[in-house]
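Single Protein Entry

Contents — chain, fold
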Amino acid sequence: MATPRNPMRRRLALAAAALASLGGRAGTVAAQAGAGTLRLVVPYAPGGVGDQLARAVAERIGPVLGQRVLVDNKPGGGTVIGTQLALTAPADGQTLLFVAASFVIQPQLAARPVYDAARDFAPLALMASNPHLLVVHPSVPAATLKELAAWAQTRQGAAAFASFGNGSSGHLGFELLKKAAGFDMVHVPYKGGAPAMQDLLAGQVAAMLTDLPQAVAHVKAGKLRAIAVASPARAAALPEVPTLQEAGLAGFTSQSWYGLVLRSGTPPAQLQRLHAAVEAALNDRSLHAALEPAGLDFINQGGAAFGTFMAREAARYGDAIRLAGIKPE
């Protein structure tokens, strides 16, 4: 069959061909391709590992869908500002929300939650995860968890740790770490991983439980010191760095995960169309080549399974909030 000469017809043909290989849904996509701009709301500041993943996926689903994909960063409020924006959008499949652990954590931190993760949103895809890495500024006189705990205690609560958002997985993970290792530090929340990392590199804060991909280059360059990785096994990107379990905290893990949701009530055909496009993006080898070396693990889990996963995570973080003594505000 001859290739269409008209650019729009050619894009439609490419979209149809791409999705035909994913289960014969090409007709639906071709009919809806070019139906306006698709908006991907990212409730974090630009530059962090989550933002990088969101932009990489957006870049790849646009050609498959035959639509322009606009990545809209809306940080603030512990991700609530961006989430509220997606909540007010029509349930037509034209607005996606990029989510991480904070999506199921924030409603548990609010005395009057503005959204219910399970009721108000439909899960689309769990895309990737990465372990957290405990890092300190080189000025901190500690190379091990034991030394960090001892140093922090000498500061009598004056030492500060950063997180990529109040109630984020990095925040709660560090709160549990303090409790498990027996030391105290002051929490300084930021609007995303990038600004938190910037202040850590500048020595404005002493430590952070950050996403592994965000810290690897800085550790290798000597700009940060890695204390331990919060995963069951050592990270291939930093094989010399012990796990927190090896450092004496049996069973302790902490990670970030990343997915996409839409407004509940989105038509099933739209969910199927969008999931097929995301699945195609996550199977793109260039995506893996770009983000795996730093420690990002791709999952590619569908909607129903993602919903079950989020329910488990909500329960786990609820326990963490209670253990850390954090009260809803």
The CA atoms of residues 292 and 324 lie 32 Å apart.
